[in-house]
Amino acid sequence: xxxxxIGASNIAANHMIxxxxxxxxxxxxxxxxxxxxxxxxxxxxxxxxxxxxxxALLAADDLEAVYISTTNEKHFVQAMxxxxxxxxxxxxxxxAMTVGDxxxxxxxxxxxxxxxxxxxxxxxxxxxxxxxxxxxxxRIGDVLSVRVFHAVHLPxxxxxxxxxxxxxxxxxxxxxxxxxxxTVRFHLGEDPVEVVAMSGASGMGKGVEDSCMSVWTxxxxxxxxxxxxxxxxxxxxxxxxxxxxGSIVARNVMTQAPVGEILLRTGSGEEALSFSDHNLYGRAVxxxxxxxxxxxxxxxxxIDGVKSLAVAAAVADAAATGQRxxxxxxxx
Length: 332
What we know:
Elements: E1 2-6, H1 10-22, E2 26-31, H2 35-44, E3 49-51, H3 54-59, E4 65-68, H4 75-84, E5 88-91, H5 99-112, E6 116-118, H6 126-136, E7 143-151, H7 161-164, H8 172-188, E8 194-200, E9 211-217, E10 223-229, E11 238-243, E12 246-251, E13 261-266, E14 269-272, H9 280-292, H10 302-321, E15 325-326
Parallel strand pairs: 1-2, 1-4, 2-3, 4-5, 5-6, 7-10
Antiparallel strand pairs: 7-11, 8-9, 8-15, 9-10, 11-12, 12-13, 13-14
Helix pairs in contact: 1-9, 4-5, 5-10, 6-8, 8-10
């Protein structure tokens, strides 16, 4: 697969370039809003071409797919251009600034006959695959509630627009709530119906929220409690599912690294669940490549991206209004 990178980003440098190459991909070009940065990034990472011209990058005959990791407000225009150029697209979350735009992206890709995927990495983690396998095996019975702990301390190199630029999609809700929404959907196999929420700035956000707590209702009757933050240096992360026959308590699993621990508690006692330590992004790229070849589907497709964004949008609305808010999936 011949790739172009749309966005000279930290996530591409730290995770995706290696994952793409590890899956046999050939990265031919990189785009930045700055030509100088594009050239420097290309040289640093052994990429043949660096450019600030999206049209020129997409016009290159050797590109088959693009990975988009620019700031959130750019995703829609860039993805739509790539789809129109006949490229397969792997896009960072959130897919767009609005659910309506994200739905338009998905529909355009369906019409064009190209693969359109969302880079929701957590569902690729060995830990979450093991949790899902235990759930599907009925080991905790029917799920009654879920608790998600995703309060972290955003490192300085990732701050910038995330903590001070609402126009670029900054704030903890578009950055982390979408991950938690996708992870809950991945495990429960159902979509949140309504949410209540509160958000605030607890020391890092400047014009955007840096902390949020919310409760979601599910069609099955299960309830979800989620906590996201940029300001918690010592909280660590966790994912808990409590059912009629037992509980799964996972710690330090809402992360890009293949780490953490999972404990299954039932009437028979406690059991540690083992899991694979494979590269999350490598698995995502491998499944994306297979889908582009006509075999299977991406780990998270465009519809998954629409639905995670819809939950985050409902949480943002609920926090702003103080009202119980229905999740609007844009008809998808």
